[in-house]
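in:
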């Protein structure tokens, strides 16, 4: 459990450091992501992005178990 938490913390720190470059990528504006933009209100539902992230994490978890 300790290794998992340290690894997760490391990944979050790296993602935080790379965040300015990650935001410039079109990762968060894929077809299938829902954006409702009205005056004074913005709702963003990254459905497609979360499906891709979930698939990648599932594959990584499968490789870690083997």
């Amino acid at each position: 459990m300790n290794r998992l938490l340290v690894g997760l913390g490391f990944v979050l720190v790296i993602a935080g450091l790379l965040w300015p470059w990650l935001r410039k990528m079109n990762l968060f504006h894929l077809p299938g992501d829902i954006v409702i933009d009205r005056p004074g209100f913005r709702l963003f539902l990254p459905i497609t992005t979360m499906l891709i992230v979930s698939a990648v994490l599932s594959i990584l978890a499968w490789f870690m178990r083997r």
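note: The CA atoms of residues 58 and 64 lie 10 Å apart.
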